[in-house]
Amino acid sequence: MGIDVLAQRIEINPKVMMGKPVIKGTRIPVEFILRKLGEGATVEDLLDGYPSLNREDIQAALAYAAKALPCEEIVAT
């Protein structure tokens, strides 16, 4: 999924959820989608529970995470 497609689906706005990346037009953070999937929820569970989401939104959340993680800075203590 290219940057243009991500920009169509993912929004970062300081006035929405304190600037966390969210699905555009919602208050559903990318982090929430990833957490739910990590806890065992299925895509169908998310689509049923959050009617404002669609499959492309969930794919965009996963693509966003895949692009963001390589840039994550790890600090050893």
Question: Can you tag this structure with a few keywords?
Answer:
48% helix, single chain, mainly alpha, two-stranded antiparallel sheet, 4 helices, globular, 77 residues
Structure, explained:
The protein is mostly helical. The protein has a single domain, classed as Arc Repressor Mutant, subunit A (Orthogonal Bundle). 48% of the residues lie in helices and 5% in strands. It has helices at 3-9, 30-38, 43-49, 55-68; strands at 10-11, 22-23. It has a two-stranded antiparallel ribbon. The protein is globular and about 40 Å long. The model has no long low-confidence stretch (mean pLDDT 91).
In short:
With 77 residues, the protein is mainly α. The chain has helices spanning 3-9, 30-38, 43-49, 55-68; strands at residues 10-11, 22-23.
CATH class: Mainly Alpha
Q: What topology, given as strand order, has the largest sheet?
A: 1-2
CATH homology-level superfamily? Winged helix-like DNA-binding domain superfamily/Winged helix DNA-binding domain
Q: Residue-averaged pLDDT, rounded?
A: 91
Low-confidence stretches: none
Number of helices: 4
Judged by helices, strands and strand pairing, the structural class is mainly alpha
Helix fraction bin: 40-55%
- In percent terms, what proportion of residues is strand? 5-15%
Q: How far is the first residue's CA from the last residue's CA?
A: 35 Å
CATH topology: Arc Repressor Mutant, subunit A
The CATH level-2 architecture is identified as Orthogonal Bundle
Say how many strands there are. 2
